UniProtKB/TrEMBL annotation:
One Pfam match: MrpF_PhaF
Protein name listed in UniProt: Cation:proton antiporter
UniProt record similarity statement: Belongs to the CPA3 antiporters (TC 2.A.63) subunit F family.
PANTHER family per the UniProt record, alphabetical: NA(+)/H(+) ANTIPORTER SUBUNIT F1, NA(+)_H(+) ANTIPORTER SUBUNIT F
Subcellular location: Cell membrane
Organism whose genome encodes this protein: Belliella filtrata
UniProt key word Membrane: yes
Length: 91
């Protein structure tokens, strides 16, 4: 089994199943923080899928897209933490 077979038959289905499970958590999450963590995890799993696809298709340009998505996910998480901190100070 080559590395491309391993990525295609094991890693991609695992990531796809994890996206489904995370999306269910995103919908069910009782608190806002649960939903934000699930959304961040969805973006991180999407970055993993893009990275695997970049390796399989031999197109390194997709890694730039993955880096931009990681930056956006990080900034979103920081913004949410800032929002929660301000909300707690107002209460």
């Amino acid at each position: 089994m080559s590395i491309s077979d391993y990525l295609y038959y094991i890693i991609l289905p695992t990531l796809a199943i994890s996206i489904l499970i995370i999306f269910v958590r995103f919908l069910i999450g009782p608190k806002l923080s649960d939903r934000v963590v699930a959304l961040d995890l969805l973006l991180t799993t999407g970055i993993g899928i893009i990275a695997v696809y970049s390796i399989l298709s031999d197109q390194p340009a997709f890694l730039d897209i993955a880096m931009i998505m990681a930056l956006i996910a990080f900034l979103g998480t920081v913004a949410f933490a800032y929002y929660l901190e301000k909300r707690e100070k107002n209460d």
